[in-house]
Every structure is written in C-alpha cells, then in structure tokens.
Amino acid sequence: MTTDQKSAPELQEIIIEGNTRAGKPFRPSDWVDRMCSTYATFGDDRKLKYSPYLKPRVVNGVRCLAVDLKLKVVNPEGYAQLMHFADENQLNVLDSSGNSIPVPH
C-alpha cells in the first residue's frame, strides 16, 4: 500500500450533479426529486420519507443528488442502477471535496 492510499480518506458520499460532463444542464430538471422518490418509503404516519442514502442538494447553484455510499451495501442493485444512470447520462460526479471523479461502480 502506498502512502497516498494510506492517507486518502475513503469516500463516504458522492454528489451526482445536475450537469453533464460537457457542462450542460441535465433534463428533466426534476430528476433529483424523481430519484429520491424512487427510493422513498411510506412511514407509519403514511407520509413519504426519503431514503437516508439519497438526499437532494444544491451545490454552486446546481441541483444535485448526494449519495451515501452505504447504499452499495444496503441495496447493491439500486446502487448499481443509480451509477448506471449517472454513467449513461454522462452526469458529473464529485467526491466530498468537490473534485470531479469517474462514476464509481
């Protein structure tokens, strides 16, 4: 293991931006809400509750989806579908420091 591998913090969350890698806004503009709704459940109070692993977020004025990487363990198929969606639509993915990274699989 190299020094870089030892000191690099392990990703706990990624941000999928509402912009493509080419810098264009992704459409439909409500895609974040749709994704969050897909993974939501109804609580005992009969209200829709978002998954704790997906959160809508605005970063630098852009609607984004924050993905807790625990989703990969809790729902591997759902995680794979989400990463496929990001990859297929060439959405920009950021690490916790805001750096653009390849879509993690």
Description:
It is a single chain. With 105 residues, this protein is α+β, with helices and mostly antiparallel strands. It contains four helices and seven strands, in the order αβαββββααββ. The chain has helices spanning 3-7, 31-38, 71-74, 76-88; strands at residues 13-20, 41-42, 48-49, 54-59, 62-68, 91-94, 100-101. The strands form two sheets. It has a five-stranded antiparallel beta sheet with strand order 4-5-1-6-7, covered by helices on one side. β2 and β3 form a beta hairpin. The longest helix is centred in the C-terminal third of the chain and has 13 residues, at 76-88. The radius of gyration is 15 Å and the shape is globular. Residues 1-8 have low confidence and may be disordered.
Q: How does the overall form come out from the CA principal axes?
A: globular
Structural category is alpha+beta
Count of helical segments? 4
N→C terminal distance: 21 Å
